[in-house]
Each structure stands twice: as structure tokens, then as C-alpha cells.
Amino acid sequence: MTDPSGFAAITSQLERLAIEVPSWAYGNSGTRFKVFGSAGTPRSVEEKIADAAVVNRLTGLAPSVALHIPWDLVDDYTALRSYAEDLGVALGTINSNTFQDDDYKLGALTHTDKVVRQKAIDHHFECIDVMHATGSRDLKVWLAEGSNYPGQADLRGRQDRLAESLATIYERIGEDQRLVLEYKFFEPAFYHTDVPDWGTSYAQVVALGERAMVCLDTGHHAPGTNIEFIVMQLLRLGRLGSFDFNSRFYADDDLIVGAADPFQLFRIMAEVIRGGGLDADSDVAFMLDQCHNIEDKIPGQIRSVLNVQEMTARALLIDRDALLVAQQDGDVLGAHEIYIDAFSTDVRPALAAWREERGLPASPMRAYAESGYQQEIEESRRGGTQLSWN
Amino acid sequence: MTDPSGFAAITSQLERLAIEVPSWAYGNSGTRFKVFGSAGTPRSVEEKIADAAVVNRLTGLAPSVALHIPWDLVDDYTALRSYAEDLGVALGTINSNTFQDDDYKLGALTHTDKVVRQKAIDHHFECIDVMHATGSRDLKVWLAEGSNYPGQADLRGRQDRLAESLATIYERIGEDQRLVLEYKFFEPAFYHTDVPDWGTSYAQVVALGERAMVCLDTGHHAPGTNIEFIVMQLLRLGRLGSFDFNSRFYADDDLIVGAADPFQLFRIMAEVIRGGGLDADSDVAFMLDQCHNIEDKIPGQIRSVLNVQEMTARALLIDRDALLVAQQDGDVLGAHEIYIDAFSTDVRPALAAWREERGLPASPMRAYAESGYQQEIEESRRGGTQLSWN
Amino acid sequence: MTDPSGFAAITSQLERLAIEVPSWAYGNSGTRFKVFGSAGTPRSVEEKIADAAVVNRLTGLAPSVALHIPWDLVDDYTALRSYAEDLGVALGTINSNTFQDDDYKLGALTHTDKVVRQKAIDHHFECIDVMHATGSRDLKVWLAEGSNYPGQADLRGRQDRLAESLATIYERIGEDQRLVLEYKFFEPAFYHTDVPDWGTSYAQVVALGERAMVCLDTGHHAPGTNIEFIVMQLLRLGRLGSFDFNSRFYADDDLIVGAADPFQLFRIMAEVIRGGGLDADSDVAFMLDQCHNIEDKIPGQIRSVLNVQEMTARALLIDRDALLVAQQDGDVLGAHEIYIDAFSTDVRPALAAWREERGLPASPMRAYAESGYQQEIEESRRGGTQLSWN
Amino acid sequence: MTDPSGFAAITSQLERLAIEVPSWAYGNSGTRFKVFGSAGTPRSVEEKIADAAVVNRLTGLAPSVALHIPWDLVDDYTALRSYAEDLGVALGTINSNTFQDDDYKLGALTHTDKVVRQKAIDHHFECIDVMHATGSRDLKVWLAEGSNYPGQADLRGRQDRLAESLATIYERIGEDQRLVLEYKFFEPAFYHTDVPDWGTSYAQVVALGERAMVCLDTGHHAPGTNIEFIVMQLLRLGRLGSFDFNSRFYADDDLIVGAADPFQLFRIMAEVIRGGGLDADSDVAFMLDQCHNIEDKIPGQIRSVLNVQEMTARALLIDRDALLVAQQDGDVLGAHEIYIDAFSTDVRPALAAWREERGLPASPMRAYAESGYQQEIEESRRGGTQLSWN
Question: Cα separation of A179 and B245, whole Å?
């Protein structure tokens, strides 16, 4: 096979790409209007991990699974870890949840009531305990906190309490562990959110210490936000901890990453590469955080990791030397064309060939369809309660 | 009491203001992350109507209750109507629901499968049957239909099927009934929505006939949309059927109307008045459609109808003659100031006095707090299943 | 050359693609902060047409040039027509301008003053006279009218006057001519715009008659608007007159079409094709409307028409039969993948080969760079006043 | 006069409110489509200051005037300072301008060419020289820098060069001077902006030192951004240097502050007060930055400072003790109502009376109209060149 696009030169970097999949993507999800079920949906954490392992087996891209506590509460995490490892995947980031208990209706780490704050802090301590058992590096904190009505809450007091609560949690994490603070523009709070933007997350984590980082969820920004700029900035400031990948047309739609705007995903990956986020010594974690409300979940996840891989490959193909020259020269159209040339390249054939070289199916999507796995789980997973976000 | 603002001159119009409340506002609601319950929440349609009747008793503003089928399915609507009338309220608009049955996962009136379409049409026929029993004038159709991924659906085919389905439903409504078609920018579908904007709703209802109208939900627009312009246009075109009032900072937040941007509500009511929507012969229906996710529901509804009343009063105070002169003269700041003067007027004392004249409490909010009703329902409504959106 | 993607099958349709270029794209443009000049910028209408002819010569895609009155006012349009034809291009759409005369500060076709309205109407009559001389089919009306402050203007009165003014203009156009009404979300007016959305443009042109159509400028929508849906709807309603192509990240940025979101351009062209807009009997006009504020103008235009061509080619490659089956079957991911497959195809080599077959340069961008034209105009066009938007 | 709203208690704080007006607001401004002139527009810096002095004389609110270099370049700033002081106003913030010289087409402080960067740095040195002559405290830096096309520029390289350039400038400012860095979402760059959000401005100024602060322009955010949250955060972090007040419906519309969303202005001022920004020892500077494109400039400025004053007064009326209790108690509606009560209060009569006590006209707008100043300048300022943004 000829290699007009220079694919051979990028495989060593491409090999480093690993995308953590979220356990909850294999359960049911939906909107406030309806959560539709689907045949074959897992009834246990183990079944979710089994499904995730299929994604990894077919793509070679998804070696770890993120857990969500308490959605993925089990009695014995050491056993769960072995179970996962036997299936070829590791347990990854631990996600806390302080938004589904009645006590958290008006806040958790920011609550005016010290008792509620302590309860939320204790929950994070439990998550850290889980991390020790699972060998997880990252504690990811997404806070659903905020208010719905102007005047309802004291924004400043909440920010100060947030700082205090986070500091208490941060003290507890291990030397090799990190606290990663996610930000989100809005939802479920509709007037103010306590960590609404990267600036707030950055200011909070800088105050904590060196092992506190920012999580960038690609769906958590105001309309029109230039996300790759934030990627650049957080890498520059040394605080890009992880990505939650998904895509959106409107709000936090949680669609398959790359489905809404593939060029945006390309630009994000281009900036990751430019800033060293895919270097051998990079600590940036790449994760999915999506909702497969209407599409099949396992192929939805396969499609997602393939999209990230495909756009990473295209971004790696950017002729960086030529680009830099054009940028230096102020050649607006020339620089843009070098950039777009990489994006316009169809890397699918090269990726398929490369997959086969590595013992993976050329088309993971087709391989899944032909594997019979879906039919098997639809058959075997009858009865029980399908897992969802609770 | 002196009347510097000219309040006396507007009471005859203000008296015409009636706001329909939605039965579902009295049940629990939430986001996809969590539906919080609250003490005293109704367990039956009757309890919802009882709560709505309290809102009307204290404000004199909410003489009817909208129902949602099947959420408000009962065996005997004639009995329900009597029950409501005994409490001083009428049954109002009937809202159909074609988004919570598994068959509707990929569409209802637009579905590619004729069987599913017919099922959705039949549901509307049932709603029309209910309307005959309840004496309702309006069948309100909000369609949750759309798609999440580009390519998933044939936009054009769906639009054509929508036209056909609506025509079949329209044929069935009575001579004195109306079909009101709501539009919504997005959610629960995240790529395309089949009735996303007023233009689509308008084009569809014009094709149906004279008793087909548009419903404008104040939370269903793209960011930055000038809603009062649409109010003006629909009144001009003779197709403004009804309002679903609520407010928002981001998406379809469904907050208390007027809470996010009181000046916007003022502008909307000013345009309603300008276009004859509050005239004696107007058929425009004013309704609430909100979610009280974290605040108490009954006072949330009281606050809502009061907000509409307050902004309507301010809008009625606009010195229309002076405004027209300034507008004709191109006096930009002068016209703006006349408009703003009305908005800046504190009508609360005059409204309180006017309420008392009519045998209503000066402060409905305080009256509710002091009525003991909330304590009573929290006490009496123990056990059973609190109603929510299903 | 093998043809794995089925390119051969689409060339007959691709051949029909013709994109009108705007004369003003060859002059200087900028923002309110600064208009930067550039060497070689035309000083006369003729020089603009000469530049446009180069774009057509190198791409075979731009056979006509839109004019803007009064920016392109000349004494003798018959002579201008001959001049253009000698260069291989036709004169196309005539664009009116009622936003740069001091009288139009507060409106033109909607102005409260009848004298100003008549002046604006008369300007359109002059444009129609020009059309007769140039042989142009379309009179394109973009109205910069609106208001900046709530209360400043009577929205309804303006809408009624707009209808009246347009009717007067419409009466004057010839049997084979069309009036095309553009809409725009905002700018230069910042509170309300008199034709802000497709619904308003549609309602206005329907009232005029069958030769009145809507112009869709791809940069004139609220954030998040699904533009291809509007394309579908206007084609369905028989009122899609023309496109003004450009792209944007924020507002009406007027960037090179396809530069900001190539997938969106693909979706738009897919819907054009689906709705018959590229059929042999289609009357849809494809135009550019862009600002080359910082990049070179002629290659900017070449890049633009190539982008439209490239995305049209990809959209033509959609396997429509397979797509329809997947859509009918409710195969969400399957349908999406068929759609995305076409988008992911690199059509550049096939397009280059096809161009050469037709006697065009394989790479129009490179051909322009090597042609020496830029150097020539930079040399020869010294002195005089570079043309801009006035 | 009775004082039901507690106005007397807030006047000591209200007295501290001072709003700097921008010299350029008195010149002509417009959009990229047209800059309309108006009778009486200044032809010199002195005439701009004279107009600004009128605003201060009538309102007592605008004791200083911000200058823009080079728009306000004069030979002798000591003389200008005396001229201004004789008219009762001081010279305030100095604004640099690195966006209108041809060299800055592709950047200034971030430019790839060291020569251009040095030129831009030197311009800031000149501004600092002016500051020494005028006695100005603040050097305000708004950078129009960015790129229009993905790939055009190296985002990271530009950010690093920005840091370096700013550090060089920061070193030069005096002990009692501050560097204030403004951020802006977009425009005039349409793909990326080098300082697009408060997070970037914050990260840059923290790296500079303690006298580097953030400037918050109320029109420079993405749609839906909660601006008062940023106000809270910057005050909490000790980095809120100044405000550029204006209002908007869409983008950076630069409308009269408070005209588009008075409740938002109220919320911003409430957060300023909450965070100590109006305390006696506060260094926060309040400025206008607006465009009076179609309205008269001087009354436009009077209206603006009055709007800020009015909303500040309303915000000062918030019953903070009661609010805090309701917030602590989680009384959602109760807290919201306390907040809204203050907003709903009509403070205009109390403000008018207070003005008269202080020897100011009760209605500055009417006083201006009756002063004959407008007629006088329209008469006297004939000939010459009206000033604009260049």
C-alpha cells in the first residue's frame, strides 16, 4: 500500500491514544421526558464492564472503564478489578455523585448546612477508598450545584465553601492520585452553577495544589466557545487533567463525540498534540461521557472511540513544519490550507490496514455486527432491572 | 390613594387577564439527573386541581386548569369537570402526549411506520373525546419528535408525514375547537426537531385551516431570539393561539415566568396589547408551562400568575399616544424613555389595593403562607405515590 | 483511475453547480474597527469583474457576478454587460442598498416617513431598470432595518409598511424576474430587525406572489439554528430563491464558506440535493456573500467556490437508497454512518482529475498562485481609490 | 417625603458611585455598514471633554473622562488636564489602540514579527507617558488580536508572546498605576481571540503582578453567560480592576447600559456591593463603553449613568440580613422575593429628590433638553471634521 498521506510516520503516536469508556454509557439514559430501555442492557456492574471489554477487544482503543459511585457500588472492588482485568480492561477514573440524594437538593460541597457539606465530603472519602482498591489514579468531581433563581443563593459564600470542601477532599487523596474538577455551563441548575467555566475550575484547583487538575467536557460550554483555545490554555498552564468527550448541537446533548462537528474534534486533537497532550509523558486522560438515548450502546461506544482515533490521525497528519512557516509568514490562506489538507484526508483505509496489522478487525463496527454479541446479550439478559443513572 | 401612574384607567383591561395553570405543575418535576420529591405533592388529578383552585382563589387570575393526557387520565371527565367547577375552576386546554410510549422512540406523527403514526393519531382522537367531555376549546399539540444524528432521519419525509397526520387530526376537532401547534427549538431531540420554530408551526397550521393556531412557549427559542417580535408577527398573521409562559437563562429551563428577565415579559405583554391580544374579542390563551424543580409548587404558581399580572399592568401603563408621536418623529431616546417609564413604575401597591377592592388578599403570597394549606396537605397527603411526569 | 467512491456517477449533477460571486468580495471589507487595504484591490467595477472572471476561468464554477447598487453604479450597463461577457462571465443578481444614505438611519421601506419610503422604493425601481439592462433575473433585497432600543419603533407598524413597500416594488418587476427577500438575525440593528428570520421572509413573500422568494444567507441565524432544516422547509414550500454562502463561528462573520464547519455545508448541500435544488429544473441560485478582511481576495473566492463544490460532491456520494432503507428501519447508527461515509470521502483527487478532463487546472489555488495575476494587479493597480463598501 | 423603601440609609454608599465616561462616546460611531454623523458632534478632544463635562454637571455622576490613544492625541496633556479640570472633570483611564495601524492586521502584542510586537509595546510606553502627564491611574489594554481561520495562527505561540509583551509593558508602569487587561469573546477576530474570556485575562494578569487587573466589559461574553458570577469571582480573587458598561441583545452591541436587560444590571451591581466593590476602599473603576450609533450622544450618556445609578440604588435596597437568613434556610422563593422586591422598587422619585438636595436637576434628561446646549453645539460646530473612531 502506498502512503501518500504519510500515515506510517504517525502510528507511533497514534498507538499511545487510549480512551477510557464510562460504565454508565452501557446502561440506559435519556432526557427528563423519557428514558427508553433497550434489549440487552446490563443489569449489573459486571455486565457493563463486559460490554466495555468488547469495545476494547474490537478497537484496541479502550483499555479502561470509568466508574461512578454509587451507580457502580459493589462490595468487593478487588474482585471487580480482577474481573475487569480478566476481560482485558482496567478500572479507571472514579466519579463521585453528589446530586441524587435528597439532601443535595440545594447543594452539596457548597451547601449552607455544614452537615450536608460533611456528608458530601465523606462521600468523596469513600470514593478515595474505592480508588485505593481499584488502583485508580483520578478522582473526578463534577458538581451539579447551583441555583435556579436570582437571589436564591449567595454566590460568593458558596464559592468560599466550595474551596474549603475541596481542600478537605484534596488532603485525603494519595501521593499518586489526582483530583480533577469538571466545569459545566449550566444544567441541572438554571440560574447559576458553582463551577461554570474553566476559569473557575482553574482558580479552584490552583488553590488546592499540584495534583489538582481541570476536566474539560466538550459539551459544557456556552454557544460559540472556542474549545481548542481552552485546551491550549490549560495545557500551557499545566492543568489539563482530562477530557470528557461527547458532542452537541445545542446544550449538553451528550451525543457521540465527533458526530455533531467533526472539524471541531479535529481542531481539539490538533491542539492536544501541539501542547504535548499526546506525548509519552503526558498525563492527560481521554474519556468518553455520552448518552446513547436512542442508539445502540455498544456500537455507539465503538463509533465514539473510532471517531476520536480518526480525528487524532488526521490531526497528526498536519504538516507542522510547513504550517509554522506559513503562520510565521502571515500567509493566512496558506496556513489554513495546510491545516485543512490534513482534515480532508480520508484516513479510514490506512487505519483499517493498521488495525489488521495489529490483529484487530479492519472494521470494528462491522465486526461487532457480525460477532453475535448483541443478539447474545439480548437473549441472555432478560429479567432483572436494567441499569440506568441510579 | 392618589393615582399618579394612571392605574385606574387600566383596570378594565387588567380584569380580562386570565392565566390557565397546568395540572402537571403541581406534581414533581426535575431534570434528567434527578426528580426531587416534596411534602404535600398530589397523588391524584383531583389533588392537583384542588391545588390549582387555591391559586385561583388567592389571585383571581387562574380560572382554568390545563390537563395532560395520559398524565391526567380519569374514567369520568364529566365528574372531574364538576369537581373542578365546585372548586371554582374550569378544565381548560387538553395536551396530548406522544413521547413517553416506547413506540414513539423515533417519532410519532412523523414516524416512518404507518402503524405508529396511526397510534399517535388515535391518541389525539382520544384527546378530542376528552375535550368534548371537559368542554375544552383547545387541543394543544407539542411534538417531542426529531432526531439526534445527522442522516438518521429524512427531514423532508417527516415534514410531509407530519402534515398528513395533523390534517387527519384537524378534521376531527369540533366546530368550536382549535388545534394549537407548539414549536420548540430543541430537546428531547438534539440534532433536528420536526417543529423547531414559529415559521414551521405557522406553515403547518396555515395548511390545516382557520382553526389551527400556533402556540408560543417563551422558553422554546434560540439564544437571543426577539420573542416579542414573533408575538407581533403571529398576531398580525392572525395565528397566535396561545402562550406557554415560563422563563429561562439557557435552554428550556422552565423557570417561573418573569423570574429570569422581567423586562422581556413586559415587552411581550406590551406587544400582546399592541396587537389586540388582550382585547375583549381576543382568542389568545395565556397559560403557564413551568417546572418547580426545587421551589414549592403552589407559591411558585402564585408567584407566576402575579408576575404576568404585574408586567401586564406595567405594559398597560405605556403612554401609547406619546409613544406613537415619539416613534413617528424618530425620537429614539424619547420613545425608549416613554416605554421604560412604564416598566419602571412600581405597580405593586396599586395592584394590592385593587385586589382588596375585589375581595382578594392584598398579598396572595402572604395569604398562602398564612392559610395553613401547605401544612395541611403536607400532613394529609402521606402515603400514596406522588405524581410526576408519568 | 479506479473509482471506489462512485465519483463518475455524480459528475452530471456536479456539472450543474454554478456559484455566483459578489462584486464586492473583490473590494476591501472589514469590521467597524478597521478596514485594511491590500495591494491590487480594484478601483473600478470593471476591475472587480476582471478579478471575478479569473475565478471562473480557473474553476469553471463562477459564471456570473452579482452587482450591488450603488456600489456598482455605472453609466452604461449594456457596455458593462459586454465587458463581462467578453471575459466569460454574466452579470447576475442585482442587490439593492438602502442602508448607507443618511435618510435611512431609522429605516427605509419601513420608515414612518412616506417620503423616505418612496425614496427607498424608487431606489428599487432603479435597480429593476438596471436588471433590464444587465439581463439579471433576481432583485435581491436585504434590509438593514430595525431598531436598537425597546420602544424606539412600532414593530407592527413597520411590518405593515414593509408589506406595502414590497408590494409596490414587486408590481414593477418583469414577468421573468424575481424578488428575493433576505432575512438576518441581527446587525446592524441590535434590538429588533424587520426581517429577522425565515418565517418573516416567507410570510412576506407569500403575500407578494409566486415570483417572490426567500434568500437564505448561511450566516444570518441564531446560534445553534439547524440551517439544513430551513433549506428543506423552504424547498418543500417552493420558496427557496437563493443562497448567500459564507461561514461563521459567532455572528455574521462572513468567513469563507465551509471554513468554519465543513460538515454543516455538507448537510446543507445534502438537503439541497434531497429537495431537488440541484435538479435540472431548479431555480435556486447559489451565491457567495463573504468578507475577505485579512486574506487575499481572489484566492479567497477560489477557495470558497471549491469548498462548495467539494461538499456538493461529497453530498452527491451519499448512498440514497441505502440511507432510505436505514431511515425506514429506524437504524439510527446505520443511517448516520451511511451519511458520514459520504462526508468522510476525500473527493479532492477525483475532482482534480475531473477538472483536468474539462480543461481546467487540477489545482485552481496553485494555478492562481503560479499565474502571476496577483503580482500583475499589485503592480498595475497603483494610485486611484481602492473600492470598498461605499 | 416618607421613605418606605429605606432610601435614606443608602445615600452614603450611593454617593460613592462615580462613572467614568469615554471620550469616544461623544464622537460618531456605527457598524461596518455605515457610520451616521449627527449635528453638533465634536471635532476636537476639547469638544469631547466639554460634552462630557455637561454630563457630569447635570448628573454629578461622571467626574472623569477616559481617553483613547491615538484618538485623543494632543501635543500638551498638561494643558488638556487643566482644560478638563476647569470644566470640573478629571482625565481618567488611558486606553491603548493596537488595532488600526496596517502593521497590526495579523496581531500586535502577539505578532510573530518581533518588530511589530516592539512597535505595539512602544505604543503602550507612550500611553504610560501620557498617564504621567494626565495623572491617570489605569492603563487599559484591549487587544483586538486573534485569527479568522483555523490553522491561520499558532494559538499557543501567540499566548506566550502575549505574556512576554505584557510583562515588558507591566514593568514600565508606575508604582501607583495599574495595567488592566480586557477580555472579549469575539470581534474583530472571528475564529480565535487571544484574550477571549475572564480566565485567560486572569491567568495573564496573575503572572504579571499585583497591579495587574482584569477589565470586565459587560458586552464581551458568550450568549447566556452569568456575568454577575464573574463579578463575584473576580472580586473574590482580588482582580476586578474595572468595568466597561454597556448592554446587548446579541453580540457586542454596545447599547446604553441597562437598556437591554435592566435586571441583569441590577444583579451585577448587587454582586459588586456584596463583594465590596462599592466600599470606601474599593479600587474598582466603573466606566461606560458604548456606541450611540443612532441616538443623540450626550443624552445617551446621561441616560447611561442614570441607569447605573438607578440599578445601584435598587441593589443597595436589598434587605441583606433577611436575604442571608432566607438563603441559609434554603427558602428558595423567599430569598428570590427579597431580592426581587428591591428590584421592583421605583427609586426614581427618591433619586430626584436626592439630586435636588445636592443642587442637581431632578431630571437630568429634561434639564439637558431645556439647557439649549444641544442647539448651541449644533449651531456652533459647523465645518471641520466630526470625530469618529480614527
Answer: 42
Please give the residue of chain D at the shortest CA–CA distance from B295.
Answer: D332
In-domain check, residue C312: yes
* A263-282 residues touching D, CB cutoff 8 A: 263, 267, 271, 274-275
Q: Give A315-345 as a DSSP string.
A: HHTS-HHHHHHHHHTT-HHHHHHHHHHHHH-
Using alpha carbons, list the distances in angstroms from residue A101 to A24, A152, B35, B169, D161.
18, 20, 10, 43, 48
The residue among C204, C217, C170, C189 whose CA lies nearest residue C107 is C189
Q: Is A258 left (phi over 0), alpha (psi -120 to 50) or beta?
A: left
* Distance separating alpha carbons of residues C182 and C197, to the nearest angstrom: 9
What is residue C316's predicted lDDT score, i.e. its pLDDT?
98
Judged by CB atoms closer than 8 Å, whether chains meet at C190 and D253 is answered as yes
Its domain, for residue C159, covers 16-317
Cell representation of residue A360: 484487530
Which residues of chain B from 323 to 352 reach within 8 Å of chain D, CB to CB?
332-333, 336-337, 340, 343-346, 348
Helices (H), C174-296: 198-208, 227-236, 262-274
Name residues whose C-beta falls within 8 Å of residue D157's C-beta, 6 or more positions apart in sequence.
Answer: A327, D112
Counting runs of H as helices and runs of E as strands, what totals does chain A give?
Answer: 14, 10
Chain A residue with CA closest to C298: the answer is: A333
pLDDT at A1: 45
Phi-psi region at A69: left, alpha or beta (left = phi > 0; alpha = psi -120 to 50): beta
Q: Using CA atoms, how far apart are residues B45 and B23, in angstroms rounded to an integer?
A: 8
Q: C42: closest CA among C254, C370, C297, C289?
A: C297
User: Which residue reads 476536566 in cell numbers?
Assistant: A215
Per-residue model confidence as pLDDT tens digits over A299-341: 999 999 999 999 999 999 999 999 999 999 999 999 999 999 9
Instruction: Cell numbers for A264, please give them.
Output: 471541531
Model pLDDT for residues A230-276, shown as the tens digit of each residue: 999 999 999 999 999 999 999 999 999 999 999 999 999 999 999 99
ipTM above 0.90, yes or no: yes
C135, part of any domain: yes
Q: What is the dihedral of CA A150, A151, A152, A154, to 10 degrees?
A: 120
Say yes or no: D295 contacts chain B, CB-CB below 8 A. yes
CB distance from D98 to chain C under 8 Å?
no
- Cβ <8 Å between C261 and A261: yes
Inter-chain touch C327–B199, beta carbons under 8 Å: no
Phi, then psi, of D240 in degrees rounded to 5: -85, 105
Tell me the chain B residues in contact with residue A35 when contact means C-beta distances shorter than 8 Å.
32
In-domain check, residue A98: yes
Q: Are D301 and D21 in contact (CB under 8 A)?
A: yes
Residue of A335, D31, D251 lying closest to C249 (CA atoms):
D251
- List of chain B residues whose C-beta atoms are within 8 Å of the C-beta of residue A259: 149-150
Q: Does C146 score more than 90 pLDDT?
A: yes
User: Do residue D299 and residue B345 have CB atoms under 8 angstroms apart?
Assistant: no
D185: chain C residues, CB-CB within 8 Å: 250
Is the pLDDT score of B277 beyond 80?
yes
Q: Using DSSP, state whether D369 is helix, strand or coil.
A: helix
Residue A352 — φ and ψ, nearest 5°? -65, -45
Q: Which domain CATH number covers B250?
A: 3.20.20.150
pLDDT tens figures, A25-49:
999 999 999 999 999 999 999 999 9
Distance, in angstroms, between D262 CA and closest chain C CA?
12
Residue type (1 letter), B208? L
How many structural domains comprise chain D? 1
Q: Is A252 domain-assigned? A: yes
Type and span of the H or E element at A274:
helix A262-274
Instruction: Decide if D224 and B226 are in contact by the 8 Å CB cutoff.
Output: no
